[in-house]
Amino acid sequence: MPSAPTTAAPGTSEAPGAAPAVASRAGAPRAADTHCPYCALQCGMRLSPADGVQPGAAPASPDGAAQVRPRPDRGDRASSLPLTVAPRDFPTNRGGLCQKGWTSATVLRATDRITTPLLRGADGELRSASWDEALDVVVGGIERVQAEHGRDAVAIFGGGGLTNEKAYALGKFARTVLRTANIDYNGRFCMASAAAGANRAFGADRGLPFPLADLGGADAVLLLGSNLAETMPPSVQHLAGVRSRGGLVVVDPRRSATAALTGEPGDVVGPVGAPDDGRSPGLPVPPPGAGPVGDQGVHLQPVPGTDLVVLLALLHVVVTEGLVDEEYVAARTAGFDDVRRSVTAWWPERAETVCGVPAERLRYVARLLAAASPAHGGAGAYVLTGRGVEQSSQGTATVTAAINLALALGLPGRVGSGYGAITGQGNGQGGREHGQKADQLPGYRKIDDPAARAHVAAVWGVDPATIPGPGMPAVKLLQSLGTPAQDREPAEVRPRALLVHGSNVVVSAPDADRVAANLRALDLLVVCDLVPSETALLADVVLPVTQWAEEEGTMTSLEGRVIRRRRAVDAPGEARSELWILAELARRLGSDVSFPTDPAVVFDELARASAGGVADYSGLSHARLDADERDGGPGLYWPVPAAEHPGTPRTFLDRFATPDGRARMVAVDHVGPSDDVRPDAPLYLVTGRVLQHYQSGAQTRRVPELDRLVPEPFVELHPLLGVRLGVGDGDRARLTTRRGEIEAVARWTDRIRPDTVFMPFHWSGEGSVNRVTTDATDPISGMPEFKVCAVDLRRAPDPQEVGA
Q1: Alpha-carbon separation of residue 258 from 18, 222, 252, 587 (angstroms)
Q2: Can you tell me the distance from the alpha carbon of 609 to that of 786, in angstroms, rounded to the nearest whole number?
Q3: Do 330 and 381 sit in the same domain of this protein?
Q4: Are 438 and 181 in contact (CB under 8 A)?
Q5: What whole-number distance in Å separates Cα of residue 637 and Cα of residue 206?
Q6: Chain segment 406-465, per-residue pLDDT in tens
Q7: Whole-model pTM?
Q8: What segment(s) does the record annotate as region Disordered (predicted)?
Q9: Is residue 235 scored above 50 in pLDDT?
Q10: In terms of residue numbers, what domain contains 249?
Q11: Main-chain dihedrals φ then ψ at residue 172, nearest 5 degrees
Q12: How far apart are CA 95 and CA 43, in angstroms?
């Protein structure tokens, strides 16, 4: 049977308690208990000074921005690293780390680390500059653009990897210094649909409203659109219990590493033979036609873009077979009658014709989930969603259908059961709570709420009337940059200047070539980054900033657990924190608003600004978080509305955060992808991540150990499709969509549907898949449809053939 990925180093053992950074002489690396710089699992790790490292930071070339593709040193550079990494026994990772976590210290010594400000000269090249010179250019550009085009002509694009303190300061800077409405962030690409669905249903959005460890006691977990075994390998430990009971259900058009954990013998994309006789006791018996199921669960392999149909069919079975928790629905929800009527249209046989999952297989999974629910005597069940179903033009509807299913089974707000969305970016949760979003103020407040504006304005010391209203969401914002007024927004509100913090949109945004063209058309592009990312390479000004092990602050994990990030090494050269940069820009722009640079002081202000909001941090401080760790506490989950409040590991146990305390069930229906298959593009293109790389690859492509394992983009296709198209394993393939064409090496695999191809999105250049993804968005959340579009695939001609 498939086993979970190994994440712990041999012989590693850590006590549950944690300690702040250990004092050492100035400039020298120091020991610190902190967290991984990558995903929202925020694995606990201990950083220790490496043997033989001298005080201070090794300089990087200030001309590194000229390097388009990182060239990792192929030698053994371990001895030059300032720190060693070891896992801690933190509740989310339990002493494990993935390959990215183990090698995270390597990025601290990236050979092309930016260590001085860079300015684009008259020759078009980036050159080193002083901070005074660079900030003068930024301030002059902002003042000129706003004088000519209005305040909203300057925009900010933030990132889900910024600390809570930086995200808060960035939103405050936009609204009080620039006084622009146009701020959004790359979390709009990741969590917007999940947030929209949860806010509508529950009145609050905390990705997982329960500790991750709670999954271990469930009889069933339905996981849609998430490949945890590759994106968050240590989290798979928490699925061991449900796997042992045969209750893991994975919905994915690929037989991913996570789908393989179900123990199924192979792909099931249509009606197949007799059920497997080797089922674990206590589970429903698969009916004839359901196909084989694994000894640890079930893999549903739908047509891309039809996950919503799967959910509607599952709820149809729950309703028609009398499996609804009627008592719970009557006491804790509203709107079920409309939902009940709407799902009558999606009986399993009809659903099968759309999603490709056998009807009896859908029935089996619905019964499995019901049997696991408390109403039917089960130990508990969870419904979890990820980007695979949320990054869709019907992402909010799909999340809503998942929530409807969970509510019908009586799961949310019960210990040992629930619905949750798996946050992706390191601070994807905290980053969307304190003001980076276009429509938001700190504490997850709505920017158009008069009471919220008054409260936050009092903390900031400004008139509420001066705070701008909602701005453009991320995709619309990027579409509007530098484009002719007749095509997009009126000239007076079209952004002509953009400040980018913690995001590499040239690789990560949909229809990326268009985004790059828009960036080039700006009057001013300022990028804060630690390495010369593809976006930084287009900038007029590049400002070098600190990274994870070089700074203090807080992050909020996928569970809503607020945790401390601690400094273990000084930043190289002249790199500065965004907190200092924003304070200095505010001063130079003549603002009277205070911008402290001490992260602990910034957090205290954030806590006051969040008081009374949905995401209430007012009972937290750096000192309290440090003390909790020293005492071996479980961590503190928001909301924490007072200094003596213990935090809220599990939300909604008594009531939902709606005016009447009831969850809202909303009827939804399937429409399908915005860019569906057609004669000239007969295949589905789906995108995702690989184990070794993270997001746009700006960090992980600079780690030699990771780059060696997966050095270039590739396209996965089924051997049957390869034979039919004449594209062999190892050939270069050309993919064409309505946005353009790209090329990548073909990899044959039987883990994917024959009508579907898969590409990871971590690279730039000719194999950058987001150059051809669609920028169509969900009408409610504004989230782009990264995960499915129509594509034509052919063998790319050899260079010799082209020249013949």
Answers
A1: 31, 12, 9, 50
A2: 34
A3: yes
A4: yes
A5: 10
A6: 999 999 999 999 999 999 899 999 999 999 999 999 999 999 999 999 999 999 999 999
A7: 0.91
A8: 1-26, 52-86, 261-287
A9: yes
A10: 208-265+292-421
A11: -65, -45
A12: 8
